[in-house]
Amino acid sequence: MAQLPDLPKGKEFEEYISAFFQCGGYYVERNIIEREEKEEVLELDIVATNYEKELSKSLIVEVKTGDWGFPDIFKIKGWLDYLGYSEGILITNISKERSNFFEDKANNIGISLLQINDLSNAANCLNKVIPNCQFEDDDFHTWRFSYWIERNLLRDLKRKKKQYIHDKKSYKELDEYYFLLNSGVFFTDSVVDRVRKLYDTFMKFPRISAKCGNEMIKRSFDEDVDKLPQNIYEETFYKCKYNAIQISTYIEHRARLALLKSAIDYILGKNQKRRNKDNGFGKNKENSLLSELPESFKKGINQLKSHKYFYRYPVFWQWFMWLFGGFILKDYEDQEYKLIADKSGIPVSEVQNALESYQILFPQENGWFIDLQESNIRCLKMFPVPFCGIGANYRRIKYTKSKKFEDLKLDGMYTLNDLIKWNNLTVKVLDNGLK
User: Which InterPro entries did the record assign (predicted)?
Assistant: First the structure.
């Protein structure tokens, strides 16, 4: 069974720090790369956004393991000026002898410096930049496992892209899709442009999971197909086998989440500015760019404005997808709603509205949620099973004293079996036993 490292380094330390921001109620974006003419300009470790009513505020966080110095501090200052952000943080796992001297110099140019050489004191150190963090070990560790799943899926995608470069189109397309939605659109100047470009990216790769499935049965990726072949669907979601669809469905849901976040940024953006510019809200420009979006999406944005807690939806959906696993355990429905409300900062009475926002922005026939047959689980359609396993483990920890699946109080012939199947694939992905 995979174990979290006690002394995380490199990407694992970045994930360790990210989990604190996630537990602190931030929307967290990671490993954002600016690339021009095939050259990498910069990579941002973490961008953490705090969503409060009528306001969102983002921080750039650089995480260093090993030696560091003033060049790292000034690099972040350069990024802030280049990107138009006001606050940056440098977090290191090595303390300098004259730590106060370095911290004072960093503060003078608007950089918070946190030197965490003792991880047992990390939560106290990070309270300086994450106020009122309701830190719980269960949440923190589960987020780290979720990041680990993501890291292994993306690593496998890169490996298979190289392995099948001349044989399969799926992996090349998935890799491009992920880069564009995670990084390519991020550096767009205005939120209006960002919404449009994200939607363009979304439409550039329509029904990509269905296309990947078509290629898996030795047919062309480029055929116009609208659903997975039945045998591939059953292998992926009933038998919980690892395949390209576990990657593609992750990327498709990530794309929708990115669009939802941008829609919320657009709503909030009319009342705030970025980069000391008009943020793309010149009336003529705004109308011109938005005219290119489909009516259903524009209607969805307008409908979300009426939701009292719409500004917390990006945070809500990060928690619901990547920690709760995209499902509701109906035997614990009241506890489920209270738990996701506590974690996302949305009242219990507003959780149903938050869940419906996905359908509002991305209308689908019969909605996005399905009740599994003979299983007391309601889940998102076409959701990647390894993350369902993350959610299954979270329920095991939260709802039993013994921490055993068998002690969950469940109805439904296959409910327990489904949770265990999901968990088993999660363990396989964590152990990197991928084929």
Answer: Restrct_endonuc-II-like
Give which of 86, 78, 66, 74 is closest to 14, Cα–Cα.
66
Phi-psi region of 38 (alpha: psi -120 to 50; beta: other; left: phi over 0): left
Decide: 15 and 36 in contact? Cβ < 8 Å.
no
User: Does the pTM of the predicted model rise above 0.85?
Assistant: yes
* pLDDT greater at residue 409 or residue 281: 409
Q: What are 78-135's pLDDT values in tens digits?
A: 999 999 999 999 999 999 988 899 999 999 999 999 999 999 999 999 999 998 777 8
Two structure tokens written together for 73: 């501090």
Nearest to 396 by CA among 367, 416, 412: 416
Residues whose CB falls within 8 Å of the CB of residue 59, separated by 6 or more in sequence, listed in order? 47, 48, 49, 50, 85, 87, 88, 89, 129
Q: Please, what are the domains in the chain? A: 11-135 (3.40.1350.10), 139-430 (no CATH)
Q: Which residues are CB-neighbours of 373 under 8 A, at least 6 positions away? A: 414
Distance CA 95, CA 183 (A): 31
Tell me the C-alpha to C-alpha distance, in Å, between residue 1 and each of 33, 323, 425, 428. Answer: 32, 19, 12, 9
3-state secondary structure of 327: strand
Q: What is the DSSP pairing of strand 111-115 with strand 88-92?
A: parallel
Contact 274, 317 (CB under 8 A): no
SS3 411: coil
Give the Cβ contact number of residue 291 at 10 Å.
Answer: 9
Tokens of 320: 């619901």
The per-residue pLDDT for range 155-170, each reduced to its tens digit, is: 999 999 999 988 899 9
Sheet (strand 55-64) strand order: 27-36, 39-52, 55-64, 88-92, 111-115
The structure tokens listed for 99 are 């730590």
Confidence of residue 283 (pLDDT cuts 50, 70, 90): low
How far apart are alpha carbons 59 and 26 in whole angstroms? 10
Tell me the sheet residues that pair with 42.
34
Max Cα-Cα span within the chain: 63
Phi, psi of 165 (to 5 degrees): -55, -30
